[in-house]
């Protein structure tokens, strides 16, 4: 059901808290070793202004293609990834570099629907529910960037 059918429920804005930083800090080494879940990776990207390497745990949607979802919207890693045009993903002690291509809303909608079903913790940040229609997810898509990942050829 769309959130609109539940008066008073509005998607929350993401604000990194001390708890979230601690949780990411705890999950990061587990994900790097492949112990945080089958689709959980550590995303690394260079800061667009500082050049510093930043890491954050992410959950991918893998359906033949690999999709990187920004459930909290246009956060720093999204802006950094767009600027770099690529990201590194590490899982089970294996690191791979991927080129990114941002999906259009129509392409992102089914990915977002699968993501919302798979990752319950992010649901408060969406104005749709896992049972919402694809049309509703298409309207929601501009708030949650989705990137298709393509392995970068070895140099």
Structural domain tally? 1
* Main sheet makeup: 6 strands, antiparallel, barrel
Architecture (CATH level 2) name: Roll
Low-pLDDT runs: 1-9
CATH topology: Pnp Oxidase, Chain A
Helicity, as a percent range: 25-40%
Query: How many helices does DSSP assign?
Result: 4
Shape field = globular
The order of strands across the largest sheet is: 1-2-3-6-5-4
Structural class: alpha+beta
Assembly classification: single chain
Gyration radius, in Å:
15 Å
Walk me through what this model shows.
A 6-stranded antiparallel barrel has the order 1-2-3-6-5-4. It has helices at residues 18-32, 76-84, 105-118, 134-140, and strands at 40-46, 53-62, 66-69, 86-91, 94-102, 146-151. α3 crosses α4 (134-140). The protein has a single domain (30-151), classed as Pnp Oxidase, Chain A (Roll). The radius of gyration is 15 Å and the shape is globular. The relative contact order is 0.20. It is an alpha+beta fold and 155 residues long. β1 (40-46) and β2 form a beta hairpin.
Describe, in short, the structure shown.
By secondary structure, the protein is of the alpha+beta class. It is built from 4 helices and 6 strands, in the order H-E-E-E-H-E-E-H-H-E. It has helices spanning 18-32, 76-84, 105-118, 134-140, and strands at residues 40-46, 53-62, 66-69, 86-91, 94-102, 146-151.
Write the layout of secondary structure elements.
Elements: H1 18-32, E1 40-46, E2 53-62, E3 66-69, H2 76-84, E4 86-91, E5 94-102, H3 105-118, H4 134-140, E6 146-151
Antiparallel strand pairs: 1-2, 1-4, 2-3, 3-6, 4-5, 5-6
Helix pairs in contact: 3-4
């Amino acid at each position: 059901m769309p959130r609109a059918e539940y008066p008073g429920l509005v998607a929350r804005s993401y604000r990194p808290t001390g708890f979230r930083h601690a949780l990411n800090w705890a999950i990061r080494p587990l994900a790097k070793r492949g112990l945080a879940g089958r689709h959980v990776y550590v995303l690394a990207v260079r800061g667009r202004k500082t050049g510093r390497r930043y890491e954050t745990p992410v959950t991918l949607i893998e359906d033949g293609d690999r999709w990187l979802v920004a459930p909290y919207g246009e956060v720093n890693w999204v802006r950094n990834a767009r600027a770099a045009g690529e990201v590194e993903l590490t899982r089970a002690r294996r690191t791979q570099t991927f080129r990114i291509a941002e999906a259009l809303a129509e392409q992102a909608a089914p990915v977002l629907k699968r993501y919302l079903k798979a990752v319950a913790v992010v649901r408060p940040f969406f104005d749709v529910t896992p049972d919402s229609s694809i049309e509703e997810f298409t309207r929601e898509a501009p708030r949650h960037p989705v990137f298709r990942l393509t392995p970068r050829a070895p140099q």
